[in-house]
Amino acid sequence: MGEARFLDPAIVARLGTIDLKARTIVEGFLTGLHRSPYKGFSVEFAEYRQYLPGDDLATLDWKVYARSDRHFVKKYEEETNLTCHLLLDVSASMGYGSGPVTKLQYGSYLAGALAYLMNRQRDAFGLVAFDAGITSLVPASARTGHLRAVLLALERLKLGAHTNVAKPLHDLAAAVRRRGLVVLVSDLLDDPQQVLDGLKHFRYRGTDVVVFQVLDPFELKFPFEQAARFRDMETADEVMAVPAAVRRDYLDRMQAMIAHYKRELALVGIDHCLLDTSQPLELGLMAYLMTRRRMP
Amino acid sequence: MFGVSFLAPLFLIGALAAAVPILLHLFHRKTDVVIDFPSVRLLTRAPVQQHRRRQLRELILLALRVAALILLAVSFARPYVAGAAAPVSAPVTVVLLDTSMSLSAPGQFASAQKAASQAVQSAPASDAVALITFADSATVTVPPTSDRGAVLAAIAAAAAGAGGTRYRTALASASEVIGAREARVVIVTDLQQAGWEANDDGGIPDGVDVRVVAVAGPRGNLAVTSASRRDQVVIATVQNYGADEARAAVQLMVEGKEVTQTTAVMAPFAAAEVELRGGFGEAGTARVVIEDATGYQPDNARFLPLDPPPAVPIAALVADPSGATGGIYIERALSVADEGPEFAVTVADGRVLSEWTTAEMSRYAALVILGTRTLDRGGRALVKAYLAGGGQVLLTLGPDVDPGTLGDVIGADLGVVPAPVRAPGATLVASDSRHPIFRPFLIPSGALGDVQVDQYRRLKDQEGRTVLARLTGGDAALTEQVVGQGRLLVFVSDLDNQWSRFPLQPSFVPFAVETARYLTHGRQLRQQLTLPEVPAGAAMAPGVVTTGEGAAARRMVVNVDVRESSPAATTVEEFTNDISRTNRSDQRAPVNVAREVEERQRWWQVGLLVMLVALAGEALVGRRAA
Hints:
A: 296 residues; 2 domains; 6-stranded mixed sheet; elongated; B: 626 residues; alpha/beta; Rossmann fold; 5-stranded mixed sheet
């Protein structure tokens, strides 16, 4: 499957709402697949229970009421195969974009597409946006209309301050009770050891994790020519540098960081997928599906 | 009330140049590439400069550059603090306080200060007040101000000096301060008669009210009015300006030590001459001191030089100093003048003189030309410039003088007939025996009739030339004329015993000496000065001053003007009548007052100094930043 068949992120960026973007990405992606290997059920009826004040009126079974003149609400049981938590890094460094798409935009498209895909598969999914702490939270659910809530949250995301991936990961790991899947979308420009500790926390609790490390092509190639002051987008520290003089060293450090993540995450069974914001988003979906396939 | 004003405020426009570094700074900031980048932590930090530190340096550099430019503009604008400067249209009371020597009797100046202070305090409340102190010159000590405390403080700080009194100079200064405004003048003085110097100009504008406050002078005054050395005796004159007979001890002090003492007795309004004998050296200075407890103090001492008067330098130009004569007669004749070194003669041939500079040439008070044949073009131009610039020249027309180049040497056509005239036995006859050169020949022993001239060159008649002596044949022997700003004497024969036996005659020495004295009159180096004439930089006070350094060092004594020693005073009415009135339209603008204040404060110098410091700081910070 060549990349030429996929949508260019720049084109996706020009589409209207994130809803449309997600649908375009996923439908296009699925159309290319011969069959969907995944099917499932989102919710199934469990039992009736007498109505209590405070219950949602939408859950009232009016037919039972007509028959028995008593109020009963329907109780459902989630029978989905998976509960997925989309973790999206919204720290300031994610605002970088050398092309038409920033890392945050790319990450939100990816999260939106994954949510759309999960919705089609009747998987429960939620969204957590974070920088140094959790800035936005949509709890996991597989209900109708939940996709819209997640996409709307993605639409409203704003860049935060500096990153502290470890803290929200630990917080979330402690909160997630059911085993499921955690999808982290981040540039991972933080202390690698702390990031790894946070992710391992999930794994130790039996949760599967897939990490999408989103980086800009300029971060991966450092193609600058002119001497300049490079200002850190999170700390505002400045480094005066001549690119030709520091490029080799920079690229070595970048590759070392990526390799370190890949190696350490693999040791604990976490998939690491490096995404370049100039690459098609479908690659992310494919990586997700590969991980999903391995899950019971 | 206090504010800064500027003499040349247009220069402040130059401060706009301060915008240049600001714009450059901003431009520089814009062109400085800043890239927001998320992976800065992976960049090598070795060549890093912290931005904030650098920004601080840039701001310091900018501030120093802007400050330097602003200071330059402000300095050129000539700032001054006008103090509680009153508006130029405000009425003013000008207090003129006499600080001359005639206010220096014990207790006298304190009375003057008190009177001046009262004048300030009694000035109308609406008036600004100015203070002018005066002696030989007038100084606007406090320009018109409403700050009367400043004026009173200036009066309290004033002191009587040793200068003379020049009323008209003070009045002229007051007139400048007053300008066109309404004014009152209060003159606090001792009304000394000698203060009305006839050659001075100055008066008070019409319509200005003048009040004269008389400060009583002493009943009498004793002064040393002259002192001179004759061998081992110092002769001093002590003048009694009082109506009573006076007796005073007279001391001779040499280099600070008393040598001898005597007593002088003076009749009323009379002087006494005293001789002070004692051992003192050939050089140095002495001081004759009297005791006068009630009179003026500065004239109780008079300084005198003990050194002989310096010899007057004279140059003798010859054709060849190694020749048979070489100017030896004129040199020997001048060396015996006044029984000592009255003249210092330098004999130089044309080749040597041609290498002199204009400054070296101008050092000589006179030039005697005995021969010009070795003088090159530069030398001729040098002599010509010397004469045109005010030099004194005695030209002889002997055989060593080339008539063909005389025009180049003198710078004028003298009408010399080149061919010499043979006239064996011709003698000299003075045209006017009262002329200074011929004064010694009034007595028979110095008769010019003994002078014999064998050959000479004839001078054609010319306008502007005075014939001082003639030969017995009727031709001019010695003439005088003006060339440029200089004076030229021409002797038609020679003074080297070639065409004339004059140098061998007894009359030659007095002739040479008197001619030299005539030419160098007024060009002797002075040893004594009278206040207010003092060398530049010297204090305006009696004493000994030294000018120059090394071999050129000269010591001079400075004494008070004896006219100031007389306490003779006019009445207030006479004084007031002597004040001339001037037309207000002739008054100078009050800006002169501002100029005086500015020149006294000289803030522009401080401004330039601070500017240099700012530039030095800029260079230092700039080098570090680089």
